[in-house]
Amino acid sequence: MNSKDKKAIVMLLDNIELRSKHTIAELQLLVRQIDSIKELIHRNDVQQPNYEQIKELVQNETPSPRPTSPNDLIRREEVITMTGLSRSTIYTLMKNSEFPLSIKLSERSVAWRRGDIQNWISNKIASNN
């Protein structure tokens, strides 16, 4: 395997890592992809895996959507995606009691209940109608 292929593999693994949002289904997909890439690398075949084979392997596997629950804890990036609000706007609205409060998970980590965010969105839609 040449250095170009090795760099491509590292780039793809970095891409997989960035795409993962730490849900169980996505992490399981990540493990399957990494295992598949390892298998390609460790094969004793004459033909070594190349960038195109690995790229195809990664692109062909898509995560299956997992069922959601109102009690799911979701992180800030998902809240931003769901609401279209910026980080600073979310915290300003929280300060003014106009947005659901976050739940402190650890010293530097917070999350929101999915149901609270969905209710906030529904209330915004209803108040605009």
Overall strand count = 3
Task: Identify low-pLDDT runs.
Answer: none
Task: Give the overall average pLDDT.
Answer: 80
- Please give the count of helices: 6
Structure in words:
It comes from Pseudoalteromonas gelatinilytica. It holds the Pfam family Phage_AlpA. This is AlpA family phage regulatory protein. It is a single chain. This protein has 129 residues and is mainly α. It has 2 domains: 3-60; 73-128. 60% of the residues lie in helices and 9% in strands. The protein has helices at residues 3-19, 24-42, 51-60, 76-83, 87-95, 114-128; strands at residues 73-74, 103-106, 109-113. The protein has a 3-stranded antiparallel sheet with strand order 1-3-2. A hairpin with a 2-residue loop joins strand 2 (103-106) and strand 3. 6% of the residues are buried.
SSE layout and pairing:
Blueprint: H1 3-19, H2 24-42, H3 51-60, E1 73-74, H4 76-83, H5 87-95, E2 103-106, E3 109-113, H6 114-128
Antiparallel strand pairs: 1-3, 2-3
Helix pairs in contact: 1-3
Pfam family, one: Phage_AlpA
Protein name: AlpA family phage regulatory protein
InterPro entries: AlpA (IPR010260), Prophage_regulatory_activator (IPR052931)
Give short descriptive properties of this protein.
mainly alpha, 2 domains, three-stranded antiparallel beta sheet, AlpA, Prophage_regulatory_activator
Quick summary:
The protein is mostly helical and 129 residues long. Helices cover 60% and strands 9% of the residues.
